[in-house]
Design brief:
The chain is mainly alpha-helical. About 80% of the residues lie in helices and about 0% in strands. The radius of gyration is 26 Å and the shape is elongated.
Length: about 230
Amino acid sequence: MDMHLHHEEKHLKSSDFISDVVIGMSDGLTVPFALAAGLSGAVASNALVTTAGIAEIIAGSIAMGLGGFLAGQTELDHYRSEQRREYEEVERVPEREKQEVRDVFAAYGFSEEMQHKIANELAQDKDKWVEFMMRFELGLEEPHAQRAAQSAATIGISYIIGGTIPLLPYFFTQTPREGLGYSILVTLICLFIFGYLKSKVTGQSPIFGALKVVLIGAAAAGAAFAIAQWIGG
């Protein structure tokens, strides 16, 4: 009889990718939806709504993608800057750096003898030493070299996918008001599904998270429509 119990740990992987998808999709579903709703209260042609919507999606995806690229590049630049500083410090003040290693293990309850032994062993490999300091002293993980480009692409594509959803009904209806009705139905359903999945993946209450996303999207669209009506009235 097999007496061994198999324990499978479930952890969230690819968190950077998921974060980028969430950023792109949430803005993509909300901003073009609010724009289309606002225009529906001010214009009488679906062509105007779809043209403005497409222009916004293109501009928004580029802006969001660029923002993701700059954020990823800044993260990488910061890591490399701190890494260079750590290499300089292990060369210039090695004893102080060893003491910082000992302090880390002292916090975990290691004996003083073991602290010295680990610090001396770690100092034999400068690259591993610096890597240890980056991770445990500064709390920094090395970003992937292609992180900035991947982030830009993921956010941009997610924005386009999300932004296309509220515009689709306007291609198949006769008036902006009719298109808006279908757009509200389709977009709120998608917002609910998106909010549900996002909350489930991140360990939050799926229903509460879904309703929160729906309310934010509905509030943005309602405000845009009301403002357009007020200005046009």
